[in-house]
Design brief:
Strand order of the largest sheet: 3-10-5-8-11
Shape: globular
InterPro entries: AraC_lig, AraC_XylS_family_regulators, Homeodomain-like_sf, HTH_AraC, HTH_AraC-typ_CS, RmlC-like_jellyroll, RmlC_Cupin_sf, Tscrpt_reg_AraC-type_HTH
Pfam family, one: HTH_18
Structural class: alpha+beta
Radius of gyration: 21 Å
Largest sheet: 5 strands, antiparallel
Strand content: 15-25%
Organism: Streptomyces apricus
Mean pLDDT: 80
CATH class of the largest domain: Mainly Beta
GO molecular function, one term: DNA-binding transcription factor activity
Keywords: DNA-binding, Transcription, Transcription regulation
């Protein structure tokens, strides 16, 4: 798991990295990292359903590539990630799993190994359970190709968001959409999942990176991923020697500098492939590759398929009734 990657902050009003201010200089461009992260998820499968639980309920979820959340509508429970703290959750609270870490959700604190894997009682689609101990909306994006955005990978395995507040209307809409299948349900569920994730990510206040040099390099990468970055250029931005920069960057992000640059570029490329009709050569240039061949090689290494196939591939796997 990567550590918190940067000093760059999520602004509550706009959900943007403050990609400009650091001790060594100024970048004017703000990087809307939340839009980037959500855009990368849209290449995967979105789903949501409600689960009614009784008795000493609980489940564990194995690691997956994607993002999920639980909204506890009724009752109380405990959420825990592997090798992480437990969180007490009450009605109205939301638990975000931003990077698909192994986790559990249960009526009382229990070790993950003691919980059944993704086994629920009847879902809302099968009829409401009488005297349910808990009602939970489970929502997720599951990626079949690639990885979640570095911003999401750098977050804690679970984030507990207390109280619904102004999001009650959004939860009510999502609850209506998961209660029954109707025309347009797939489209509306995906849109509501997007809104829920944006809301949760905006509420997350990450700790600031205490290394201004690494923060400056991260700002620069996200502000202009197509720039001809190399370790020398990035170390100059950071105001550090190459050796010191490489060590600090890898320690801070969990990823070597050029691997991080490649990840940012390919995340952007995946969004452009699915969201635009631009030719592959244009996308290769836009994300910083000197040739279409170099781009295709790097993309296939990460996503497992050539860019052209990825563009036209439609996820068809239907998730079972399981947790986020």
């Amino acid at each position: 798991m990567c550590h918190r990657p940067s000093r760059i902050r999520v602004r509550p009003d706009a959900g943007r990295y403050d990609a400009g201010r650091y001790d060594a200089g100024l970048y004017d461009a703000g990087v809307d990292v939340i839009t980037e992260a959500i855009g990368g998820l849209r290449s995967g499968i979105s789903y949501a359903h409600r689960v009614d639980e009784t008795d000493d309920w609980g489940w564990s979820h194995p690691p997956f590539e994607g993002v999920g959340f639980y909204v506890l509508l009724h009752g109380e429970g405990w959420a825990a990630a592997e090798n992480g703290p437990s969180y007490r959750v009450t009605a109205g609270d939301v638990v975000l799993c931003p990077n698909g870490a192994r986790h559990g959700f249960s009526r009382r604190p229990r070790p993950l190994d003691d919980l059944p894997t993704c086994r629920h009682g009847r879902s809302a689609a099968e009829g409401e359970v009488r005297n349910a101990e808990a009602q939970v909306i489970c929502g997720a994006y599951r990626l079949t190709r690639g990885r979640v955005h570095p911003f999401l990978r750098g977050m804690p395995p679970l984030v507990a968001v207390p109280g619904l507040g102004a999001e009650r209307a959004l939860v009510a809409l999502l609850g209506q959409e998961v209660a029954e299948e109707r025309h347009g349900t797939a489209a509306t569920r995906a849109a509501l999942i997007d809104l829920m994730l944006v809301t949760l990510l905006r509420s997350y206040a990450p700790p600031e990176q205490d290394d201004p040099g690494i923060a400056a390099a991260l700002d620069a990468i996200h502000a202009n991923p197509r720039a001809p970055w190399n370790v020398r250029r990035l170390s100059e931005v950071a105001g550090l020697s190459r050796t010191v920069f490489t060590g600090r960057f890898s320690s801070s992000t969990g990823t070597p500098p050029m691997a991080y640059v490649s990840g940012v570029r390919l995340d952007l490329a995946a969004r452009l492939l699915r969201g635009t009709t631009r030719p592959l050569s244009a996308i290769a240039h836009e994300v910083g590759y000197a040739s279409e061949f170099a781009f295709a090689t790097a993309f296939r290494r990460t996503y497992g398929v050539p860019p052209g196939r990825f563009r036209h591939e439609t996820p068809t796997e239907a998730p079972s009734q399981e947790g986020a």
